[in-house]
């Protein structure tokens, strides 16, 4: 508090006028759409909005609490008085509202809600708040979203770059632990500091996208953002909403798309959050067999309630509208689709037809995808769906859920399980790598090696690999090449790209010092080169989601644990042959079928010395002989390096 120059006394706070009820941002159409479950921009009307009324500057507030007996505004402007600023109900809509002169941007506030039931009262953060206090404080902050974007060139070209025929290589990032500042209390980088360091790194490494683990406001840092309380507020741990917009703006201006991890599947039990909001189960189901998630000790949204659907739809549109997000990755879709997800017999309620499918959630997901693609056809939606639910990424008009992409969790589990095997035993598990060919084009797949695979005792990626240190690094290089040559878009979690030894810890920085040591720097170099090859050659990306872009050359050589396949692009000369040796035994005079004669250049060799390998290879190119092999008209005689992958491109 400032002191008076004359006597040192504290200056009085400016007097805040009472609530005015002769002003409303809500129209009858808003109320109709809200109650109908079709309002996709509700954040424009509910929450806190600085404005002017009758020449008075202030803020309009509105909150949905249909079972409240009384709702009032409390904040730093009225010494957190629970009764001085009461709201009025908006007819029978269940919305309470009021205009408070003198309350401006930066003011902190909560809603005090006195329920009609059991004398219950509670102080709630604003479900539609744009900004929050830094945790562990929990109040909302009045804010205005008026950032001046400079990414017009990116936005104009985004439609072409978001097509599934384009390269999509995603770097998954947890902002709080990507890089820290040890000399400043080991704090995380701010959004604006990330704009300098992350943008430079991702651009240099050749990734096309950054996926941010949930940056929506969350009370518990250790939830990584997956326990959301602020569905319209970026976490204030790293700065203001403007600061996050600046980070996204910088990524866009450097040609990097941004994916937001969005969590409409569940929300936490914190008192200031959405649960038991007005003394009733407003956002969640009242019956805990449908309304509580046993895995995460969190509440499940009531997708059958129209107003809840409007809330969630508005959250999705908000990030696309105001933060220029390029794609929404929807978390835990399987938990939404199945009523018996992680539940035993008797712990769940069947749907009206006696089945386990959550019909209300299915309808919501379809509506979500429909609205996103209607308003933003130049973006993508991505489902983290871990079961065999059919047609997740197929159009709604065909009976699908309407997502653009689906994570291929089966590929991830099978591949990582295979790579943990000692090479001497791999011939008995050959089908773990080939089985994907049965379903590879049933969905538009993304191949994820995500944060979930390097945490909670699972160990780091490099430590999953068998053998001595050299073999571990060779196996990891082989894994990455195998991934990039397979059909499907790519996702890699931070730290994996330089073979971090330790398991991911959200309270620490990545071990960047490792990149000063050759084996780690060489793996990092390989990821750099794989990204650039993936982007440069249409054969490796253009038909990632089409059977036309892939065919096996030889998938049956289990005895030698080798695999080879052909990737094709839209034109006749867009062909790359990939071949992998999953044992530490070099294969000399290995004959490999190819589709045409001529010189085939070795465009990648994971055993090259520059990647830390032994240098076994084919001197840069091999001439195809007119000898049919593997069902192909011609063939190459090559040396297959130990625990190595080769890519060949026709010159």
Helices and strands in order:
Elements (H helix, E strand, L loop, with lengths): L27 H9 L10 E7 L2 E9 L3 E8 L12 E2 L5 E7 L6 E8 L5 E4 L15 E2 L10 H10 L7 E5 L6 E2 L5 E2 L2 H15 L3 E4 L3 E2 L12 E5 L6 H13 L3 E6 L25 H4 E2 L4 E2 L6 H17 L4 E4 L2 H5 L21 H17 L4 E4 L21 E3 L1 H11 L11 H4 L10 E5 L11 H4 L4 H17 L3 E5 L24 H19 L13 E5 L7 E7 L6 E7 L5 E8 L3 E8 L15 E4 L9 E7 L3 E7 L1
Helix pairs in contact: 1-6, 3-4, 6-8, 12-13
The overall pLDDT, averaged over residues, is 95
Global Rg: 28 Å
- Overall geometry comes to elongated
Number of domains: 3
Number of contiguous helices:
13
| Alpha-beta content class | alpha/beta
Widest sheet, order of strands: 9-12-15-18-19-20-21-22
Low-confidence segments, given as residue ranges, are 1-12
The major sheet is characterized as:
8 strands, parallel, barrel
Class of the largest domain, according to the CATH hierarchy?
Alpha Beta
Q: What is the beta-strand fraction?
A: 15-25%
By CATH, the architecture of the largest domain is named: Alpha-Beta Barrel
Description of the structure:
The protein has 651 residues and is α/β, with parallel strands linked by helices. 22% of the residues lie in helices and 23% in strands. A hairpin with a 5-residue loop joins strand 4 and strand 5 (95-101). The chain is elongated. The N and C termini lie far apart (73 Å).
